[in-house]
Amino acid sequence: MSQQSTRALLIRAAMIRFGREGYEAASTRAIAADAGTNISSIAYHFGGKEGLRIACADAVADQIQQVARTVPLVPVVLSPRMARATLRRLVRRMVTFLILGAGANEMVGFVLRELAQPDSPVLERLYATLVEPRHAGLCAIWSAATGRPAESDDVKLAVFTLVGQVAYFRLAAPIVQRRMGWQGYSRPEARAITRRLLVNLELMTGGGNG
Amino acid sequence: MSQQSTRALLIRAAMIRFGREGYEAASTRAIAADAGTNISSIAYHFGGKEGLRIACADAVADQIQQVARTVPLVPVVLSPRMARATLRRLVRRMVTFLILGAGANEMVGFVLRELAQPDSPVLERLYATLVEPRHAGLCAIWSAATGRPAESDDVKLAVFTLVGQVAYFRLAAPIVQRRMGWQGYSRPEARAITRRLLVNLELMTGGGNG
DNA sequence: CTGTATCAATCGATTGATTGAATTATTTGG
DNA sequence: CCAAATAATTCAATCAATCGATTGATACAG
Q: A131: which chain B residues are within 8 Å (Cβ-Cβ)?
């Protein structure tokens, strides 16, 4: 575990730098130094700075696939009861990953930077392989839970509001923590957030209005 | 309207560059060029790049103050009915500003970049003058609407989930629009989003669970 | 004249990329 | 089992390009 390949070390260091400072601002020298290697290792392993960027995107996609595997990619028939249970499980997973997960902060930061550049090649990659299929799967489950058509605008938007709530607690973490009087995100904080999100989820899916 | 001061032009150009590329990556040359002036004007008007950054933060604060003026800073007594009406009005305002408002994209991008640097001086400034008092005011209204204690963790978190939902539609705009099949954000799209958010708000505040 | 504002020109520092040598790891031949 | 040979990495050094900042000159209004 302590001995990692230079390639993996570079990706990890780049994720942090890219996330914190942005792609252009992050210097390859600093990344290489963080990884404990030479600048030209980046050219060797990834062809250049841009290749390292794409490698980071792939790493993010891999990680999120792990979290999102609760959402089936193929349509399955679910009872409303089981659909709601699946959604609850997913909310717990998202919170655990985004709030407690190691490296989640850096990964979210990285994705965020890419989001700010709507024509980013990284964004294109992430959307097609990750966002689109997972969101569609979520809509199907949401549909099973509420009885509303899965591909209706309102269901799609409802799913976005669910995801948005979780994401916000990571994005605006400095603000949230300060306002809550929290020193950081740990178990009790994650529990409090989860509790609130599950209440919202229940309200949105349980009453037949969602 | 078409004739603006160099100072204002620089702030506007900087907001776009800072938001899109990040503070460090955005070059003062490009900003000056966008503003149609010389590099050294930045040093003249703002003392340097850092001064321009702070000027952008102040501009953001001013804009948001306009939107948030619906939320009273001083405690007022509100009936649950009127409190809910106030919250609905605020949701409409937020959507109008974030989704339709000119320059909102750039401003959000700018704030987002600062959020990624938790010890940013800009963030400190924005929190004290903007986030803290407005969030507290929102909690008070939320409390009036639901009967729950305003400074309880759950109310504070509930308010964050409300704000987070709106914010997400701006932050993840490229993803949302693509998934929804939208070409951009315009009136009909804003209405659809507003409708969903008002439903969520009603569920959270109306049932006595929020 | 005085002060405000903008200009082109230039400063040292740092950027991503490249190079060929040096180092390390793996495979091969005896 | 060891040593020679080959391949795989990493290294310091260097490149042109660009960075933020500064300078002194210039233009203009009161």
A: 175, 179
